[in-house]
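Support request from a user on the community tier.

User writes: "When I paste my structure tokens into the form, the page sometimes reloads and wipes my input. The last time it worked, I copied everything first. Here is what I submitted, just in case something in the input itself triggers the reload:"
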């Protein structure tokens, strides 16, 4: 099972929604959303997963962003109040895997769920902080959550032994997009090859976005397209296609076309059945159209998740 974790930014949610609408995830990919904002896009994304009957995990106590504040401060008869009611209604659906990060507010949320008939064995739990291992053991005495996402560190694997999923950030994010020019191709992951050998229920990462979260973006000097692919030994590698005219922030459409031209050249030399995300990027090359920076990230995410879904489905 592959669990792909996202911080619930706009382009991430749009990627997840489009994958669900087009039935491209398969049965062995479970998206995990840590919502950073109470938004109509979040509500629509969860609603779409319920409509197509594909499970999605949604973290109820996110660490980053304004989601918790948005829920608490939603004013009566406001748009935010409408989103809040819709979110709460959708969250109660069985398609939504109730998910929690082990932190100080976890016990109160677990108690609330218990009172509302949500058993701990149905939960997805993320525990990446050593300081909360004791709390995990206290809350889950004799009970195993459905998924326990933990780091590779031996300390966690010694103390959490059931339904474990290794969660690591496999994306080596650079400080600037232009820095990827020096790393055109690199190793990404081999978790999909060996997770069963270690008795794990699955493997998890942060796709081609990475774990780090920033509240605001900025106009980049370079445009980069991140594309994962299977090497001959079935490990996952990642290509970084970078624009050439990177002296300033102007003309991102031109920069995109430079980057996507390199993608097109590589793909023509190394053809394989394209995913929807990859095919859409190649269409932009053919049509000389510019989708916007957010859409570039969206399509890279879509490519990664569809690729993993196909791989895991074919291996069953």
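"...and here is what came back when it finally went through:"
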């Amino acid at each position: 099972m592959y669990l792909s974790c996202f911080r619930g930014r706009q382009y991430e949610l749009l990627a997840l929604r489009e994958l669900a609408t087009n039935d491209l995830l398969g049965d062995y990919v479970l998206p995990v959303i840590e919502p950073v904002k109470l938004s109509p896009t979040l509500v629509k994304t969860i609603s779409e997963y319920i409509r197509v009957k594909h499970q999605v995990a949604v973290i109820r106590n996110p660490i980053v962003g304004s989601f918790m504040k948005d829920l608490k401060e939603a004013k009566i008869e406001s748009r935010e109040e409408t989103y809040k009611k819709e979110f709460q209604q959708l969250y109660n659906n069985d398609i939504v895997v109730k998910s929690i990060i082990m932190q100080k507010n976890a016990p109160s949320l677990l108690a609330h769920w218990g009172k509302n008939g949500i058993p701990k064995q149905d939960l997805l739990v993320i525990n990446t902080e050593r300081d909360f291992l004791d709390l995990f053991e206290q809350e889950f005495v004799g009970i195993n959550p459905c998924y326990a996402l933990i780091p590779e560190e031996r300390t966690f694997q010694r103390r959490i032994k059931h339904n474990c999923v290794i969660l690591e950030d496999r994306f080596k994010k650079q400080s600037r997009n232009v820095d990827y020019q020096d790393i055109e191709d690199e190793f990404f992951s081999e978790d999909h090859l060996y997770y069963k050998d270690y008795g794990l229920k699955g493997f998890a990462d942060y796709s081609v976005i990475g774990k780090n979260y920033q509240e605001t973006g900025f106009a980049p000097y370079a445009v980069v397209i991140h594309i994962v692919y299977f090497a001959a030994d079935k490990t996952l590698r990642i290509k970084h296609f970078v624009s050439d005219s990177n002296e300033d922030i102007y003309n991102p459409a031109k920069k995109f076309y430079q980057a996507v031209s390199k993608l097109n050249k590589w793909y023509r030399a190394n053809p394989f059945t394209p995913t929807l995300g990859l095919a859409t990027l190649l269409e932009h090359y053919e049509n000389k159209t510019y989708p916007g920076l957010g859409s570039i990230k969206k399509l890279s995410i879509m490519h990664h998740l569809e690729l993993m879904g196909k791989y895991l489905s074919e291996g069953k």
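Agent notes: The reload is a front-end session timeout and is unrelated to the input. Residues 243 and 259 are 5 Å apart (CA to CA). The mean pLDDT is 96. Escalated to web team.
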